[in-house]
Automatic annotation (TrEMBL):
One of its GO terms (biological process) is proteolysis. Keywords: Hydrolase. Signal peptide: none annotated. This is Peptidase A2 domain-containing protein. It comes from Candidatus Gottesmanbacteria bacterium RIFCSPLOWO2_01_FULL_39_12b.
Length: 127
């Protein structure tokens, strides 16, 4: 079991954010991502792809839609290490994704954990 205190943004709002390692080939990056139960796929900013040496346009073209509108991205398989578990996950990288947090969505992430959002105490628990 790993407990992550929610992180606050510049306006004082709290979010269930985890730190994790993402790797592709010989490249590894330590990043932060929001655990998002409303997102089907994981979506990361272009700069993460650059840190991993990924040419994003060589991935599978994906069009995503949600509350914030529609974006075009490129899906790549990457390795993730979070809360002591390692697994491969499809990740969409997009130049059009401009929000403050990278997102870890449900696909291939949520099945690896029992996830508890403890809003009352601003804690995220991954078991």
């Amino acid at each position: 079991m790993t407990i992550f205190p929610y992180q606050r943004n510049s306006t004082g709002d709290s979010f269930p954010v985890v730190d994790l390692f993402v790797s592709k080939g010989n490249h590894i990056a330590r990043i932060f991502a929001l655990i998002d139960s409303g997102a089907t796929v994981s979506v990361f900013k272009e700069e993460v792809a650059k840190q991993l040496g990924i040419d994003i346009e060589k991935g599978k073209v994906i069009h995503l839609g949600g509350v914030g509108g529609h974006i075009k991205g490129y899906q790549h398989e990457v390795k993730i290490e979070v809360a002591g578990k390692k697994f491969v996950c499809p990740m969409v990288f997009s130049r059009e994704y401009l929000v403050s947090f990278n997102l870890l969505g449900r696909e291939d992430v949520f099945e690896n954990f029992r996830i508890i959002f403890e809003e009352k105490n601003n804690l995220l628990i991954l078991e």
